[in-house]
Write a structure and sequence with these properties.
The protein has 74 residues and is mainly alpha-helical. Helix 2 (26-33) packs across helix 3. The protein contains five helices and no strands. 61% of the residues lie in helices and 0% in strands. Residues 25-68 form the HTH cro/C1-type domain. InterPro entries: Cro/C1-type_HTH, HTH-type_reg/antitoxin, Lambda_DNA-bd_dom_sf. Keywords: DNA-binding, Transcription, Transcription regulation. This is Helix-turn-helix domain-containing protein.
Length: 74
């Protein structure tokens, strides 16, 4: 998964309680994925690549951005 794809997924995810035009921040996205904002930043800058569970979750969010609503309640 490329850094651009990860940024696109983050921008596609809409969080409950936020304005529909709100762009999900790296910190919010990290919280959703249960990782650090630094990790998300590293993925988006191409310094690191997501693997394992994070990669699978990113693929699921890419296929279904509304999954974020369910993840927020966990």
């Amino acid at each position: 998964m490329t850094p651009e794809q990860i940024r696109t997924i983050r921008h596609t995810v809409k969080l409950t309680g936020r304005h529909p035009l709100h762009t999900t921040t790296q910190t919010e996205f990290a919280r959703l994925l249960n990782t650090s904002a630094q990790t998300v930043q590293s993925w988006e800058q191409g310094r690191r690549h997501p693997s394992g569970t994070a990669l699978k979750l990113l693929h699921l969010l890419h296929q279904s951005p509304k999954l974020a609503e369910q993840l927020q309640t966990i």
